[in-house]
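The instructor's notes for this session suggest beginning with a concrete chain rather than abstract definitions. Hand out the sequence below and ask the class to guess, before any prediction is shown, which regions might be ordered.
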Amino acid sequence: MPLKESEAIILRSYPMGEGDRLVSFLDRQVGRLRGVARGARMPKSRFGSTLEMLSYVRIWYFEQESRDLVRINQCELLESFVEAQRDYHSGVLLATVSELTEAILEEREAADAQFRLILVTARAIRDRGASALVLAYFALWTVRLAGWLGSFEQCARCGKAIADGPGYATITSGLLCASCGRGKGRKISRASLEIIGRMISTPLYRLPEEKRLSASAREISAYALDIAEHHLEKKLVTRPMLEFKETWV
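After discussion, reveal the predicted structure:
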């Protein structure tokens, strides 16, 4: 039972027993794992604040083939997002990042791209605050990395380019042109389709925070989260908390 060392992001942790924590974390090399941190809830715990949601840590743990849970030995904090969580709206966004990631990723499947996406998103929330654009970027890229994002340039039914008008997003048929999809799904404006193209090709830090983009960002978030919930076959607990954030940039 060798000691393993890796970079990781803490997704969630739960009380376990009298003084332990059950921890869900994303190992950069191995993928999503669950483990037990013995004594993590005790007053003089060696883990300190390293097990807070979305903490970026260096982690050491023991793993046995016959057990699903690893035993977490130690964590070293590399980057914390606790301060961002003190703001309610930013905390909701970070909780959404955590919930969606944990729901989508299978255990023990390497996911370095998702790992990097989480860090980029958490840093943007910490630096920018609650942002509809950041949420849209994260949600869109998450469903794209999962293989669930179809073409946003061509109609999924007739194959014609969605050139001038809006698209219509349906849960079962993908993105449809105005002729095929009118009245059959969520309307996605041409402006939003153009921003999706920019999000796919442009790093988050190069996307401008502009008030005029907020309506499109909310449209894109709703589109991507609909896709995620359809494939997961469940509703995200944090999503209703996002619905009323009309004032986000």
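Then share the key points. The helical segments are 82-85, 88-104, 112-128, 132-145, 178-181, 190-201, 214-232, 239-242. The longest strand covers residues 3-16.
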